[in-house]
Amino acid sequence: MIVAFSVTPLGVGEDVGEYVADAVRVVRESGLPNRTDAMFTSIEGEWDEVMDVIRRAVAAVERRAPRVSLVLKADIRPGVTDGLTSKVETVERHLAE
Question: Taking every annotated instance into account, which residue ranges of this chain make up the domain Thiamine-binding protein (predicted)?
């Protein structure tokens, strides 16, 4: 499964990069395939392991922020691996045609 999620600290002002970095650090240290862009972090793995990483990422932000917003979108497709790369490669292939 692939989950794209966003953790946003609330009540800390407009500059939230250092708080988001706390969450991304948890994801990167998990060892699961992941990718971060301007809006979301995507992570790939089995349900329990992905959700555990997301839970810990939220907790990392929650330690320093009085309130946290979490948005997530999941692609639950059993048997598919390397979706983070293959989905993008498919789109790039079509763009090149």
Answer: 3-92
Q: CA dist 6 to 16, 19, 43, 60, 80, Å?
A: 12, 12, 11, 13, 23
Q: Please give the Cα distance from 81 to 35 (Å, whole number).
A: 15
The model's pTM is: 0.90
- Give the CATH architecture of domain 2-96: 2-Layer Sandwich (3.30)
Q: Where are the domains positioned within the chain?
A: 2-96
Mean pLDDT to the nearest integer, 61-89: 92
Q: Which H helix or E strand runs over 59? A: helix 47-62
Q: Where are the beta strands (DSSP E) in the chain?
A: 2-10, 34-36, 41-44, 67-75
